Every structure is written in C-alpha cells, then in structure tokens.
Amino acid sequence: MRIDVVTIFPELVEPFLRVSIVGNACEAGLLEAVVHDLRDWTEDRHRTVDDAPYGGGPGMVMMPGPLVAAIEALAGPKGAERNAEVVLLSPQGERLDQNGLSRLAALDHLVLACGRYEGVDQRAIELAVDAELSIGDYVLSGGEVPALAVIEGVARLLPGVLGNPESLVSESFSAGLLEGPQYTRPPVFGGLEVPEVLRSGNHAAVEEWRARRAHESTRCRRPDLLAARGEEES
Ligand code: JDQ
C-alpha cells in the first residue's frame, strides 16, 4: 500500500515513519509512505499557504490553490478515474473507528491531507477531497497527529506487518470489546498478586477468564461498545 501525506510540517511527520511498526513496514516494502511539503505547490516568493477568513474572525484559513494542486498531482483529479482515496483529517469529519481503519487498509493508495490554522477553504474540500475523517471529539492544532494515528492504525492491518497473525485472530475475537487487565513478572509487585488463573497453565480457564474480564471492563467503562454489539447494558 502507498500513503502520501501532504503537510506544511514534513519534519514532524517523517521521523515517525522510520520508527517501530510503521518503520518496519516501510523497510519491509509492505508500506510505501511519502511525505510532501505543501509549500512545494505555492507560486509566490513567500510560499504562502494561508490567508485571512472571509467574513472576518480570528486566525487564518488554508488557501485552496496549493492544496488542490498538491492533491491533484498525487491522486489525479477527483472523479471516477482517480485510483486513490483522498482523506482530509478534520474535527468536522466522520469519526474514525477500527472498521474505518480496515476500509482504509484495503486501499492501494491513500492520500492524507493535513490542514492547519483554523481549517481549510471549503472549495478545496469540495473540489479535491473524497472523505473528511476525525480521530476524536477534541481539537488539535492540525491534521498531522491525526494522520500519524491513521498511518499507524492502517499499518498494523497490512498483511505481514504484525509478524504474529495470532494477535489479529485474538483481536477479531474480542472485536468491539476493551482488553481486560494484563500482567507480566514479577508475580507479586507492590503487594499485588497476578491472578492465580493466569499462572495455572490451564489455557481454557485463561481464555474464559480473559473473556469475562474483557466484558466486565467494557460494561464498566464503555457500555456504548456493548450496545453497539447488540449486548444492551443490563
Ligand atoms: C486541522 C482547528 C480551530 C480546527 C486545523 C486543521 N480529530 C481532530 N481533532 N483535531 C483535528 C482533528 C484537526 C485536524 C485538522 C485542525 C484540527 N485544525 C485546528 C482549529 C477549529 C478547527
């Protein structure tokens, strides 16, 4: 899969692509991620990408010209013969969840456009963007951190990236539930013991305990997730 990122802060995005799971996926050729400086598509001497908002008000707005030029250079013009999906990260977007990540991970080519300032000129969105996505109901200062979240979440889903397909099986088994508590050595820490069942060697009992704790955690902390599975909180 190829992911292009358009940003005014390439130096923020690039180091992330070299580290950990995403870095390994790139080195293994399973993910090709390329970062582009939006200012490369400006035409004025100051490489301007922002301007004052029509109607007045605080802050600046990202200009449509450079952004549409960048997106069209990377993805082609919006329409039927475009072979990429262009996503703008935005607080106004549809909320991304694990199902949304799965859909993105199935694409051959994803272009992530990162806004800054108070947002992006609406005409750029209408003319060049296929989908607006939010990573949660809180306001960041730009689309870069959301784009990194998308890249990391997508990379984990690409075939061969997580060496151990077992973990994907167990994730899909517990899909839509929170993980229960986890423990490693030592067996007693700060006076607190690792639950006996996890040290019993009884794998069936371990699985049953984990499933029960996952349900309990989810019921206490995220009853909305149980409702979404059709398991109404009782
Ligand atoms: C941009 C901003 C005031 C937005 C500018 C571009 N989930 C999520 N949270 N925040 C974002 C996404 C996000 C994405 C792109 C962005 C925030 N801002 C800052 C400032 C109003 C709206």
Instruction: Supply the number of helical segments.
Output: 9
**N to C succession of SSEs:** EHHEEEHEHEHEHHEEHH
Radius of gyration, CA atoms, in whole angstroms: 22 Å
CATH topology of the largest domain: Alpha/beta knot
| CATH homology-level superfamily of the largest domain | SPOUT methyltransferase, trefoil knot domain
CATH architecture of the largest domain: 3-Layer(aba) Sandwich
Major sheet description? 5 strands, parallel
Distance between the termini: 43 Å
Q: How many β-strand stretches?
A: 9
By secondary-structure content and strand pairing, the structural class works out as alpha/beta
List the SSEs and their pairings.
Elements: E1 2-7, H1 10-13, H2 20-27, E2 32-37, E3 50-51, E4 61-62, H3 64-75, E5 85-95, H4 98-105, E6 109-114, H5 122-128, E7 131-134, H6 144-155, H7 165-173, E8 188-189, E9 192-193, H8 203-221, H9 223-228
Parallel strand pairs: 1-2, 1-6, 5-6, 5-7
Antiparallel strand pairs: 3-4, 8-9
Helix pairs in contact: 3-5, 4-6
The structure holds 3-[1-(phenylmethyl)indol-6-yl]-1~{H}-pyrazol-5-amine.
